[in-house]
Design brief:
mainly alpha, 4 helices
Amino acid sequence: MKLDPPLPLHPCVKPHQTGAGASSLGAALERETKLLGDLLQVLTKHREALASDDLTTIDDTIFSVQRILRTLAEARKKRRTLLEIMGIDPETPMDELEGSLDPRVAQELREAVHAFRDIALKLTKELEINRKVLNCAFESGRTFIEALGGGPD
């Protein structure tokens, strides 16, 4: 029984962009996506705590954000290493990553890239909302202190 020869790869595609490398990258992206989702939830909880002056929850959410950001930094390092192993520039933006992959790569990896981009966009919007809420809270606090006579001269 004669096996068909493997399909030739595009000249830009490295042989190690398939198989285990793609699977590992998919798992790394899924992990990062989960962490971004966790961060999204914590930011929402933080905003709600700000609105209700719940100082304990504010403190808890700040600690949670710090923990998630440290874990995200480690996950990002892992993803960058996997991209290097696969022969892909680790600086490749996520929206260009799909074009750098072997077209035969499993659909799961492509879905992981899309899920990562989607949650990153949602997180960007939530961060902007939180920034505005924090700026308003800061301004209100400053105005309150000035009204009490403790403001800058």
